[in-house]
Amino acid sequence: MTEIQNFLFSNQDINYREFSKKLIPDIPAERVIGVRSPVLRAKAKQMAKTGEAAAFIAALPHKYQEENILHAYILSGLSDLETAFSEIERFLPYIDNWAVCDVIRPAAFRKGGAELLKRTKLWIKSGETYTRRFGIVMLMTYFLDDGFDKKQVQWVVKSDSDEYYVSMAAAWYFATALAKQYESVLPVITSKQLSAATHNRAIQKAVESYRVSDERKEYLKTLKIKK
């Protein structure tokens, strides 16, 4: 057992392990140790300061879910844009569940600009489920405000899939876009450009959002596709 694995097992929370296993049913239960996020975030910061992080993220694949989440937190702390791009693209093929995918929020991406948008488009077009999900989440996170362009919406429409975790990411994107760019995004919903599942999930998420007005919520409810 490695030093990192020893650390993880020494911080194991059995009750949290059982909870986590239910959230990520697509991976083998034996890969889940059960370590809470604050412990992993603190460890990632410590490893970055001591220099342990570089060796750890170089050693792929990892065995346990928490090693992958720790890896994701380390990537999130990267401040150099080129390093962030190269390390994330090296890690993406090893991501096999949403919980790891959605943790990655590199500090460097706040200054990613055109290059981040270019790579995001490529990630969204990927044939790999979690690379595509990652791209959609990055588009949602960094390009629904000042960097928004209506053409980006179609990237997500075209990426829509019957793969559950891609569909959920697309729904999340559209629900957030309905809160931030309502007039630009509404035509996708009114013209039913998404699959029925993604369409209804997007509306449901928007209806549950505190950032969408009650009036708009009531209208969106009328647009649901009846099964």
Written overview of the protein:
With 227 residues, the chain is mainly alpha-helical. Helix content is 66%, strand content 0%. It contains 14 helices and no strands. The protein has helices spanning 3-10, 14-23, 37-50, 52-58, 65-76, 81-91, 98-101, 113-124, 129-142, 150-159, 164-180, 182-190, 196-208, 214-221. α8 (113-124) runs antiparallel to α9 (129-142) and α13 (196-208) packs antiparallel against α14 (214-221). The mean pLDDT is 96.
Secondary structure elements and their pairing?
Elements: H1 3-10, H2 14-23, H3 37-50, H4 52-58, H5 65-76, H6 81-91, H7 98-101, H8 113-124, H9 129-142, H10 150-159, H11 164-180, H12 182-190, H13 196-208, H14 214-221
Helix pairs in contact: 3-5, 8-9, 9-11, 10-11, 11-12, 11-13, 13-14
Strand content: under 5%
What would you call the shape? globular
Rg on CA atoms, Å:
19 Å
CATH class of the largest domain: Mainly Alpha
Order of helices and strands: HHHHHHHHHHHHHH
Determine the N-to-C terminus distance: 51 Å
Oligomer type: single chain
What's the CATH topology name of the largest domain? Answer: Serine Threonine Protein Phosphatase 5, Tetratricopeptide repeat
Number of helices: 14
Q: Which regions are unreliable across 5 or more consecutive residues at pLDDT < 50?
A: none
Main sheet, how many strands, which sense, barrel?
A: none
Give the domain tally: 2
Tell me what the CATH architecture of the largest domain is: Alpha Horseshoe
Mean pLDDT, as a whole number? 96
Helix-strand category = mainly alpha
Strand element count: 0
Query: What is the helical fraction, as a range of percent?
Result: 55-70%
